[in-house]
Amino acid sequence: MKPYWINVLNRSLLSTALLTATTLAPVTIFAESSGATAKHAPTISSSSILAAPAFKNVSVHDPSVIKVEDTFYIFGSHLQVAKSKDFLNWDLVASGVTDNNPVVPNVTKEFAEALQWAQTDTLWAADVIQLADGKFYMYYNACKGDSPRSALGVAVADNIEGPYKDQGILLKSGMWDQISEDGTIYDATKHPNVVDPDVFYDKHGKLWMVYGSYSGGIFILEMNETTGKPLPNQGYGKKLTGGNHSRIEAPYMLYSPETDYYYLYLSYGGLDANGGYNIRVARSKAPDGPFLDAEGNDMINVKADKNKPLFDDRSIEPYGVKLMGNFLFQRQIGDPGTGPGTGYVSPGHNSAYYDAETGKSFLIFHSRFPGRGEEHEVRVHEIHMNVDGWPVVSPYRYAALPEFHTPLTTQDIAGQYQWLNHGKEITAEIKPSETVQFTADGQIRGAVTGRWSLEAGNQVQITSDQVVYKGVFTHEWEPDSHSTVLAFSALSSSGLAIWGSQRVERSDQDIVDAVKKELSVGNAGDVYFNLSLPTKATSDAEITWTSSNTSALSATGIVQRPRTGKGDAKVSLKATIRKGTVVSSKTFNVIIPQQAVSPLLGEYTFEHKKLAKVAQDYSQNGYHGQAYNVVSSGTGGKNQAATFNGTDSYIQLPGLITDTTDFTFSAWINWGSGGSWQRIFDFGNGLTRHMFLTPSQHNGALQFIIHDQGRDQSLIATKPLPSNQWVHVAVTLQKDTGTLYVNGQSVASSSEITFNPKDLHVTEAFVGKSRYAADPFYKGSMDNIRVYDTALTAKEIQRQAKEKP
């Protein structure tokens, strides 16, 4: 759960898709031994094995797990609830802080006191536990978001799926200059933000609640098992770690009967795709500490430096055992599967589950993914204990594979691996895998060198750069190859995690054939941007390139478009692939289009009634588009306009702004109203680079956004675009200044639009459609769309606004 002062709150509202994907919340669960009756359940049967496991994913931010009979439930932020019987296939039970949510019907009234105190309309991470009376206690919390003004309460239900009835607020925070829960003036550097609860039983059957996020740190309270509320006269309870607004949150406690330790899981960093969220752990023999990391550091001393800027990460990143951060098992050209590989971005806010019958433990968390922006899903990984009693996490998600009881041999382990070092940093950087070779005689060669040894119980000891890592070998399901692979997970004495995944061995001929089959330069028909020509492929195969026309396209992929009037350049681009003594080649016929006629790049008047010609370009460039379910209909008189049905109609244009730094979009719009985040246009490249114009965003305002690598720059009007009438709309970008016009008048302007269209490398140019599937299609009509590679002046915009469609 993200505390406050978080930029992602603004970014998460840029799209309906992002709104549901960018959420905040805590987590909860219990590892039980004798005497405890909460958050435990029967067992995970190893008979639920899938030869080729099928997964059904769900988006619940900050998933807190509880098992009831044979079903796992996860509760998260925004009153999201999901369930599963096997940790593989999830079904959404409820979502949204609305009065029709079945888990808490009339939630805005039921939790009105908390919502009013926190000055918010949503809830953060919930945690549910079943107490001795057999009832289910939901610990809910609400937070203002830009401050630690929060309320934490409890609600009770007879059934796990509700309905829950409020039992009142337990704690409040953020009461600036007022008396706080401990009788002193509230101080956010010392007192907690009362969110992210986890209520659990210790091994003796005593009830506790650990909670907190940023602000003054992580705290623990003794609880009354009969009422489910804190015992009296504790204030905020006992502090365990954090303070001075350090980015530490989402505490979760799990006891291990195997080691007799309490493990305090924490999330460091920020939850969004650029926040560097990562999962850490410390341990103690007592539920209320002291908690130590692998180097013996007492976590009570871990806090931000108050003399440094807010949310100073450098002060805290050396501490705690880092189990997982941003990573990517890189899929190389010629490897099985598709896409960039398997990896996570900002994994965190975990809960955990211990199965008393099987002795297995699991980590349940949410994660974002490389190249997918703020989309997030729940993931479950198995936890193992190394010989020093520290948890190590399986590199791949849990897949209910059959048990492998046969001890491994050195011959089994020998082979090529993808090696990952998670490091200790709090960083948005995605840690890429490297290739190493484990030899049968215990050597490690390649990108990393060292030694390895197989210990009893398939435990492993790895030494590299004089650092010793201790962990375990496991069999995992590898999603790209759709096969079982041998993997390892290990920790150093300083709390550094390394992972490895064994590659399948193939002959040189098979490798070259696989590389040749997959090798591509994308859409060779129209190449506008420099090509990234790979020189390495799977298993160290090499690729070299030659070009028949180096003035248009060099052998390193540099594109020089012919000048206007010179015609398109045709290039034969040849790739030679080598692995050992095996050599093969592949040729691509590439067209480099001549530079566009300036300044009018594209003009669309929609005069043709035939669908195939609706999106014809009347500029000199011939950037004709393709219309889908768009009708050309009269605007009055003989003029025609493009009409969009709001369901499945849109126009796809070529990448007409490929060379554009300054820019103008000008059009007549007759918007039929409807849902937020419709698109007038959406030009871009995937989810990481794009710009769009929406007639009404979440706050009901006309907005232009240009987004590059996780950051947004916007022009926001004070109100939505007028509906059911013809309105002239224009956007101009000139150097760092952007201006948004309605009917020739500026409605928003900024001198901080430093991104430009050329940097977006536009490959997807839509009119009437968003690149986010959750956003609605545009409903209404458009006419006289013009796109320029220059910024028209205010007077030029005013003249166009007088030319009625």
What key attributes describe this structure?
805 residues, mainly beta, eight-stranded antiparallel beta sheet, 7 helices, 48 strands
Number of continuous helical runs: 7
Described by strand count, sense and barrel closure, the largest sheet is: 8 strands, antiparallel, barrel
**pLDDT under 50 segments (min length 5)?**
1-50
The proportion of residues forming helix, as a percent range, comes to under 10%
- Sum up the overall morphology in one term: globular
Question: What would the average pLDDT be, to the nearest integer?
Answer: 91
Radius of gyration: 29 Å
Map the helices and strands:
Elements (H helix, E strand, L loop, with lengths): L7 H4 L4 H6 L42 E5 L2 E5 L5 E4 L6 E4 L12 H4 L1 H7 L8 E4 L5 E8 L6 E8 L7 E9 L24 E4 L5 E5 L6 E5 L15 E4 L6 E9 L4 E8 L9 E7 L36 E4 L2 E4 L10 E14 L6 E8 L8 E9 L5 E3 L16 H4 L1 E7 L9 E2 L1 E5 L4 E4 L3 E5 L4 E6 L2 E12 L4 E10 L4 E6 L5 H11 L23 E6 L21 E11 L2 E11 L7 E5 L21 E3 L2 E6 L2 E7 L4 E4 L9 E9 L9 E5 L3 E6 L8 E6 L2 E6 L9 E9 L2 E6 L2 E6 L13 E4 L11 E10 L5 H8 L4
Parallel strand pairs: 17-23
Antiparallel strand pairs: 1-2, 2-3, 3-4, 5-6, 6-7, 7-8, 9-10, 10-11, 11-12, 13-14, 14-15, 15-16, 17-18, 18-19, 19-20, 20-21, 22-24, 22-30, 24-25, 25-26, 26-27, 27-28, 28-29, 29-30, 31-32, 32-33, 34-48, 35-38, 36-37, 37-48, 38-47, 39-44, 39-48, 40-41, 40-47, 41-42, 42-43, 44-45, 45-46
Brief overview:
It contains seven helices and 48 strands.
